[in-house]
Amino acid sequence: MIPRVLTVAGSDSGGGAGIQADLKTMLALGVHGMSVITAVTAQNSLGVQGVWELPVDAVRAQYRAVVDDIGVQAVKTGMLASAPLVEAVADLLATTAAPVVVDPVGVSKHGDSLLAAEALDCVRTRLLPTATVATPNLDEVTQLTGVRVEDEDGMRRAAEAILGFGPRWALIKGGHYPGDALDLLADGHEEHWLRAPRLDNRHTHGTGCTLGSAIASHLARGLAVPDAVRAAKEYVTGAIGAGFALGAGVGPVDHGWRSR
């Protein structure tokens, strides 16, 4: 049977990030993607023009409909928007025996807020403990922990701080760090440093969503966490290299780069 992966996230009407990026990634990596939509955004290459959360009952109903009938081999979370939605999703994940990738989305690529300030504590205390892998970028690390990363030692401190909230693994994404695209995967005992050349391409919308979904897809196929993360980074690096202009602003990564 084709591995099944569920994304719990917001919709991006421009197609570059969110649910749309997640499903494209899953298709490219050979798994069956399914979705629970938490919020609808009016969004394009210039930014987010509006956000409308779905009711908690609608999110629960989508999740139960998929998991109870079809089943899942991995779950990925993205934009959850509010404290009630974070709490509801954390409760659902606690009942699901599958690896969970938590992308603690706080702001969009354009700097638009995608998570209410009062939801941060719920992310720390309810959502992160459910994660097999948590994948914050450097801005989200600071938002969640107060740690500001300026060097590799800072990335270690960031991983330690995120792991303190309870995920099994922390992937500190150093995409905003100078030099090579350097990430640190750690579980408190092992460290895996993942390096890739920094590509000269401004069209990187959806990078975080794509990485989280790629990790979940590889976990669903049975890879161990370090191997899943390495394979996901390789896929995302190619997608960034093939990112293309769309609209008047920042374009998306190319999820179908391997088949073009």
Could you provide a short overview of the structure?
By secondary structure, the protein is α/β, with parallel strands linked by helices. It is 37% helix and 22% strand.
Topology, element by element:
Elements: E1 4-12, H1 18-28, E2 32-44, E3 47-53, H2 56-69, E4 74-77, H3 83-93, E5 100-102, H4 120-127, E6 133-134, H5 138-145, H6 152-163, E7 169-174, E8 181-186, E9 191-196, H7 207-220, H8 225-241
Parallel strand pairs: 1-2, 1-4, 4-5, 5-6, 6-7
Antiparallel strand pairs: 2-3, 7-8, 8-9
Helix pairs in contact: 1-7, 2-3, 3-4, 7-8
Describe the structure.
By secondary structure, the chain is an alpha/beta fold. It has helices at residues 18-28, 56-69, 83-93, 120-127, 138-145, 152-163, 207-220, 225-241, and strands at residues 4-12, 32-44, 47-53, 74-77, 100-102, 133-134, 169-174, 181-186, 191-196. It is built from 8 helices and 9 strands. The protein has a 9-stranded mixed beta sheet with strand order 3-2-1-4-5-6-7-8-9, with helices on both faces. The radius of gyration is 17 Å and the shape is globular. The mean pLDDT is 94.
